Known about the structure:
This protein is of the alpha+beta class. The chain contains three helices and four strands; from the N terminus they run αβαββαβ.
Amino acid sequence: MADIAKAKTMPTEGVESELRIRISLTSRFVKPLEKVCSTLKNSALDKGLTAKGPVRLPTKTLRITTRKSPCGEGTNTWDRYEMRIHKRILDVTCPQDLVAKITNVTIEPGVTIEVFIISE
């Protein structure tokens, strides 16, 4: 029985191996980020592939608090600046030859994309 299970998991010569692609998208703005996510997912689904996501990760908030007064005298007034970073993760399983076709989409300005390819 163990020999049969091993034979099922080993790829044959004519079959292409499936790759698991994890696409990580990061942006300061939500609308362009969601637009790119939907474009990537729709392009994967149009080709008949399985796509999971986008998984919305918690928003990182970067805060800087600084004094308004340049000389340090006067009343203690403070400026508070904040930048929010939104992140999405999309998982796609596809053959090797479709990787370039899926990731070939127009990217909105301000959106950063990282592609991780994991062979199974």
